[in-house]
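Ticket #4471: structure export looks truncated?
Reporter: QA, pipeline team
Priority: medium

Steps to reproduce: submit the single chain below to the structure queue and open the exported record.
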Amino acid sequence: MVQGTLDMLILRTLIGGRAHGHSIAQMIEQSSDDVLQVEQGSLYPALHRLEDRGWVASSWGTSENNRTARFYELTKAGREQLSKEADRWRAMADAIGRVLGDFGQRNRRKPKESEG
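Actual output as written to the record:
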């Protein structure tokens, strides 16, 4: 993942409400059709970083399988940060799209009418 992407994806996931780390990873993977894979070695440092910045808050609770787990929720500051990051990423994606232009379409082989 591009640096900073995981933080934004975690913040976006928490818009839906509080969640524990494992379920955050699952939601990111599922909503990306498993294109994005979230490793625990990246997830928990990111959650701690977000908490240190005041963008998420955490508390202990009981998970759906009756285990004690740390749950994370988005703060007001985190919601504001998500808005800024989402705008920045959309602008970057648009710019990259303009640079690429129709490169993908030009390099694809078009079927001949007789193959059609």
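Status: closed, not a bug. The export was complete when the record was re-opened. Leaving a note from the reviewer for reference: Helices lie at 5-13, 21-31, 40-52, 76-100, 103-106.
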